[in-house]
Amino acid sequence: MSGLEVQADPDGTLRLSGEFDLSAVETFRLAIETSADPDREIVLDLTDLTFLDSSGIRAILTMAQEIGTNGVLLRKARPNVRRVIELIGIEGRSGIRVEG
């Protein structure tokens, strides 16, 4: 799968699948604007995300800064995606939490 798909679950979780790179930043931004509840913690399920680069990380950080104090939870990242998250060290920045 290439490109990024974002699906909103009934509980508000946003499931990301595919590849999150520079070409997917606008898709992500639009999905957040239309599906995320700014009054709750934003939960991004990364189970089906196969690729994440610095552009995707930057988009997540920007979104986290814009939504304010409710925070962002990154959940269930594959090992290669989790490695990028760990290398860049975004956990704790702008209210971002990372969960196995």
Written overview of the protein:
- The two termini are 23 Å apart.
- The chain is globular.
- It is 35% helix and 31% strand.
- The model has no long low-confidence stretch (mean pLDDT 92).
- The protein is α/β, with parallel strands linked by helices and 100 residues long.
- A 5-stranded mixed sheet has the order 1-2-3-4-5.
Helix/sheet category: alpha/beta
Identify the strand order in the major beta sheet.
Answer: 1-2-3-4-5
Which strand-content bin applies to the residues? Answer: 25-35%
Which consecutive residue ranges, at least 5 long each, have pLDDT under 50?
none
Characterize the overall form: globular
Instruction: Average the pLDDT over all residues and give the rounded result.
Output: 92
Count the DSSP helices: 3
What's the end-to-end separation, in Å? 23 Å
| β-strand number | 5
What Rg, in angstroms, do the CA atoms define? 12 Å
Helix and strand pattern:
EEHEHEHE
Q: What is the gist of this entry?
A:
The protein has helices at 25-35, 54-67, 79-88, and strands spanning 4-8, 14-20, 42-52, 72-75, 96-99.
List the helices and strands and how they pair.
Elements: E1 4-8, E2 14-20, H1 25-35, E3 42-52, H2 54-67, E4 72-75, H3 79-88, E5 96-99
Parallel strand pairs: 2-3, 3-4, 4-5
Antiparallel strand pairs: 1-2
Annotation keywords:
5 strands; five-stranded mixed sheet
